[in-house]
Amino acid sequence: MSDPFGSSTLRVEQPRRGPFARSQYKVMEEDGTLLAVADETGERGRAQKLQTYFPGKSELHGRAVLLTTPDGTPLFVVDKEQGRMLTTVRSPEGEVVGTFRTERVGRRYVLHDAGDEPIGEISVDLARNNFVVADTNGKQVAHVRKKWAGVATHLLTTADKYTLTISDPVAEPLRTMAVLTAIAMDMILHESKDIT
């Protein structure tokens, strides 16, 4: 499988688990065929685990997920640094593919390539449920929609569901960054389950 994300419509889901669960995601085709899984890398220390027990600022702590094929072949690492300002996508060998840089928290993010050149941006609606990915000319190349699952699910579990539609053809590395937008935005904006 040379391009596991070749489809123009994908689903990204975070399994329903307690609010203190590790970061996990599934990337699927529209029909539910599993393409990749992501799980938090490394072990968290006791202080980091305790920080997740108290709502309010857990999204400010750094975390990274390793995205692999279902058989375990590494694809990418999505690494959200402490705070909300920088999330880096790396190859399994550690080479930077691109970055999500916060321009306005919760509203606008600029995408950069490995050479730190801007390649696009993400605009976010007020509810933080719709993410429009555009190239540097302002042309929409992808749309990510977060499904609202209700207050109890939002506040008490990690369950989030996203639909990604890509307006192919989209050049690399912008296409990869567009595919990983749901995971990056979830880590930056939604994972803590804060009421903001």
From TrEMBL:
Name the record gives this protein: Uncharacterized protein YxjI
InterPro entries in the record: Scramblase (IPR005552), Tubby-like_C (IPR025659)
SUPFAM superfamilies recorded: Tubby C-terminal domain-like
Entry GO MF terms: phospholipid scramblase activity
Pfam families, per the entry: Scramblase (PF03803)
Lineage, broadest ranks: Bacteria, Bacillati, Actinomycetota, Actinomycetes, Streptosporangiales
